[in-house]
Amino acid sequence: MVTFDRRCFLMSGAAAAVALPLAAAGELKRRLGVTTDEIDEDPVVASKFLREFGLGLAEVRNVWGKYNTAQPVDKIKELRKIFDDHKIKCSMLGTGFFKIPLPPDTPEGRAILDNQWSMLGGAFERARVLGVNKIRVFAFTYKDGEKPNLANLPRIHELLTEASRRANQQGIRLAVENVRGSYVSTGAEAAQFLKAVRNDTLGLVWDPNNAGMSGEKAFPDGYKQLDPARIFHVHLRDYRKSANGKTEWCAVGEGEMDNLGQIRALLKAGYKENFTLETHYQSPQGKAHASRTSLTALLKVFAQV
Predict the structure, then answer these.
(1) Distance between CA atoms of residues 190 and 214, nearest Å
(2) 287-304 vs 6-29: helix axis angle to the nearest 10?
(3) pLDDT tens across 170-227, in order?
(4) Relative orientation angle of helices 287-304 and 259-268, to the nearest 10 degrees
(5) CB-CB contact of 234 with 266 (8 Å)
(6) What is the pTM of this model?
(7) Taking the domains of the chain in order of start, what are their residue ranges?
(8) Contact by Cβ (8 Å): 138, 98
(9) CATH: 3.20.20.150, 3.50.50.60, 3.30.70.20, 3.40.50.10260. Which one for 31-235?
(10) Cβ atoms 97, 123 nearer than 8 A
C-alpha cells in the first residue's frame, strides 16, 4: 500500500496547481501561428521557423513572391506537401478579395467585380487544397485623405452577403479584416457591419492593431462593441507613435497594444478560434529576425494568460 504524508499531499496539490496553467498555456500555443511571408517567401524556410518554435499553424497570404490566389493550383499543392512534411496546418487563407475601392455600378465597374468573383472562386479551390475552411476578405477601401461615403454601405453589405452565400455553398467561412482605409477599419465600424450583415458564415478577422492605427482605442473600447461569437480569427502584433507623432509598427512589447488584456478578454468571452502573429514591423536584420523578436515576446505574453 502506498501512503502519503501531509507534506507530500500538499506538494502534490501544488504541482497540480502549476500543471493546470501550464497545460492551458500549451493549448493556447497550439492555436497560434504566423503569416508565412512575414518570415520568408519560401514556405520551407517559414515551416522550419514555425517548427523551431513548436508551432503548427500558418496563415497563408503571399508565397514564393505572389499572392496565393495568383499562384497556379499546382504550386498550392506543392505548398500543401511542404506543410504536411513539416506537420503544419493552414489556419486561414489570406486574400485581397474586395480590398479595392467600391466599383461603380456601370459596365466597367461590373467587369471589375467579375474579376473579384473569379478571385474568390480561385480562393475556394486553394482553400480546399490546403484543407482550410476560412478565408480572409475585406470590405472595400477608399483613398488616403478621403472619408468613407456612407451611402455606399448598403451596396457593400449586399456584395458581402452574396460573397458569404457563395462561400457557404463551398463549406467555407469568410472573415472580413478590419484595416485602415477600409469601410471596416475599427471595432466600432466592424460592430455596425456585423449587425447589418447577419450571417453566421460571415465574421471578422479582429485586428486590434489595425484599429489602433485607424485612431481607435482598440482595446478595450473598440473590442467591447464586438460580438465575440462573430470573431473568426485574431491578428496580433504591436504599434506605437513615432517621434514625429505618426503611428508605426514595432516589435511586440515595445508599443501601445495591450496584447495580454486583449487575449484574456477574448478567452473570457469564450473565443475558441486561432491567433496569428502578423509581424509587420521591419527590422534592419530582415523579416525573419523581426518575426523572431515579436514571436518570442508574444509567447511570453501567452505564458502569462
Answers:
(1) 12
(2) 140
(3) 999 999 999 999 999 999 999 999 999 999 899 999 999 999 999 999 999 999 999 9
(4) 50
(5) yes
(6) 0.91
(7) 31-235
(8) yes
(9) 3.20.20.150
(10) yes
